Amino acid sequence: MGQLQRRFESLTASMPAGVWSAPGRVNLIGEHTDYNRGLVLPICIQPRIFVAAAPRVDGRLRGWSVQQEDAFEVELAELAPGRISGWAAYVCGPAWVLRELGAAFSGADLLIDSDIPSGGGLSSSAALQVAIALTLSSLAGRPLEGKKLALAAHRSETEFVGVPCGVMDQVVISLGRHGTALLLDSADLSFKFLPFEPARSGLSLLVIDTGTRRHLRQEGYAERRATCEAAAQALGLPSLREASLDLLASGPLSDPQRRRARHVVSENDRVLRVARALERSDFATIGQAFLASHRSLRDDFEVSASELDLAVEAAMEGGAMGARLTGAGFGGSVIALARTQDRDRLVSHVAAAFNSAGLVHPRIFEVAASGGARWDE
Ligand code: GLA
Fold this sequence. Notes:
By secondary structure, the protein is of the alpha+beta class. It has eleven helices and twelve strands. Helix 3 (124-139) crosses helix 5 (168-175), helix 4 (146-161) packs antiparallel against helix 5 (168-175) and helix 6 crosses helix 8 (255-279).
């Protein structure tokens, strides 16, 4: 019996029925494209959220987390969007969605443990909701799988928690496979697995978590989404997926609209370029596309932060082939692709740059493409 099961037993005086888990993700490329019906190319990473759980029969949901001081207890029948705040919302959201979908479950005890840094742009909140949706649907006897699992977790985030996010995180966390990146078309949710094993070419993918956490992130995200939708409308298009650079140059857009749209259109193109390069293991092209993506997110989409720019610059000076912010931006993490032989030099270079700028020491770790949500034991 593992530590999590023992802890569950000491909290609830019963054994868990099982342990389920879901990973964090990094997006290789395709940022702020998913809610514009565009292309994304994420991978699952090794840090995961684990959930030990047992069913209840009294209509109550009780939750504990190894990382949080406060526990919660709610009546399932009383769950409604906007009623729950804090980390409990990410646990109650999937429970509410499953009941809306008619799943037969009458309560549960849940203990959560996570090693995904929260707020680091690695999708810890989507991982939690996917893990809970999988856990609760399994306890109800009908485990949600694949896109159904992703869409249940996405509905929890948008309708219950109230964040207007795209589908990328939930889809890759539900479907991701070891050694592959997922090329997802957000317009129709069609997808393809592409090989992503940089280690076979002597390369490493590093995450640099800058430790910056911006409170404006949610508002900034919603504002960018609204601007993109307004730009598409001004162009008379259903979404920016149908736009081209020529159309943007001649169309009736305001200044921020034009630059936001230019990022989205050029980023979709970069995703395709990286997807083609992955098929030939052409990592030099991938590195260049990472840099171009970062510049576009910094200058046109304006979602970078000085710490993210510093991490990208220092990684490049330390020998990276390419680096970019990953996730929504406004703080969080950068990914850097480098030869494994240059990894230590890069790490010390980034650490030294943060040190001389008077910033906290960034957390730097190597990631590999890992498996998606699953029943562990
Ligand atoms: C967050 C959202 C995703 C996506 C990214 C930006 O991670 O949850 O849907 O929009 O930001 O690419």
